[in-house]
Amino acid sequence: DIQMTQSPSSLSASVGDRVTITCRASQSVSNYLNWYQQKPGKAPKLLIYAASSLQSGVPSRFSGSGSGTHFTLTISSLQPEDIATYYCLQTFTTPNTFGQGTKLEI
Amino acid sequence: QVLLVQSGAEVMKPGASVKVSCKASGYTFLNYPFSWVRQAPGQGLEWMGWISTSNGNTNYAQKFRDRVTMTTDTSTSTVYMELRSLRSDDTAVYYCAREERVVGAPDYWGQGTLVTVSS
Questions:
Q1: Spatial CB neighbours of A56, under 8 Å, sequence gap ≥ 6
Q2: How far apart are CA B58 and CA B70, in angstroms?
Q3: Label partner for B50 (CA 20 to 30 A): which of A51, A106, B83, B104?
Q4: In the prediction, which pLDDT does B25 show?
């Protein structure tokens, strides 16, 4: 199975900050890397698919980059509503595997 | 609009089976496969498997392969996930999710179904 490792596990930032979360794969997943936001008690929400494509309706302050084994999710200017846990997910091969999550706090 | 509505919460005894449903609407059901993902209390997300709505083909995570069955009913645009031989560590919220076509990322999710396994 492909292991996905996110860093950091938790992050405290201020409104307006630029925030970056990293996801590393144990082997190449090409661009089959997706990012999700999950708020307590809610289903995950797709933010970025195919490493860098912004899902429809997602604010442009969210962006993704990377390929192969190293990926990043960037929030250009943190907003209070961005407080959530973020997960990466590789869909290159089955079993699809998630990162362990990054809890973002203000 | 795309909508996935899951069945309600369940409380099950150890050793029992549970079947969770996920009814889709707002798009052409046969055009998109589904994944099932679960989340234990306070834990991360875990992929369980995948089902094609066009031909019923499945692909299960090894961890669940001998206990899970995913099926579809195209007449009602519903997918099902049955988990057998339940244990206490199966207590979790179970999500269905439609997969988009570019890289297979789950794009629309059901609201989740809490399954509690307790004696």
A1: none
A2: 7
A3: A51
A4: 96
